[in-house]
# Entry
Amino acid sequence: MPTIIIIAAAVGGLILFGLSCRPKMSSSGSGKVPSSPSPQTKATIKLMTRQQIIEHLSQLENGAAPEPKMGAMCYDMAYVNDTVVYICPKCGEKTLYPRTNKGSGVADEINFYRRELSLMGNSPEISFDLDELALCSHCTQDTANKEISLVVHYKDGFDHHCKLTSTSDLTRLRAFMQADLSYETSNDGTEALKPFLPRIKELLGTAKFNK
Ligand SMILES: [Zn+2]
# Structure
């Protein structure tokens, strides 16, 4: 009889572990932020030219949106500091943002933006940069504007600037430039890119492609 009790307790324990909160069950197996591939596997964008961008836009606009996939509902609680420290990649100086300052939100998310951009990839015709000058109190006198922009460089010298309003901007754009139909949400679900095509066009400056 004691053996049966021990086995029952062990099975019970396994069931409990199985039900415990495991936020990341996908193949990427990373934390809340997207997994970062090793440098060897860093992606090159699949849409390497404007023509390929236009063709993929057309494919998305005319095709059915894929079904979303629900992600996990569990989150790790992050510790929040009173002050956000922003370090400028150009001059190396620190700018401190109290939580009450409206720049703190962007400064807090800057690592996410940088990470997304580092995963974006480039092609001989198209490359991407972040303009985060406004966040550095040493590099800019503009204390009101605390926004960052995406800069898309096209080979013919056309640089397109677009203000970033959400970290999802770059997540969706990265999926688009990989010629995907969906993007991965922060909790490992997927959502169709189709509803976000107007924003993706803004980010890429497609309205100026033929001018
Ligand atoms: Zn600076």
Notes: The pocket of zinc ion is lined by residues 88, 90-91, 93, 136, 138-139 (CB under 6 Å). The longest helix spans residues 2-19.
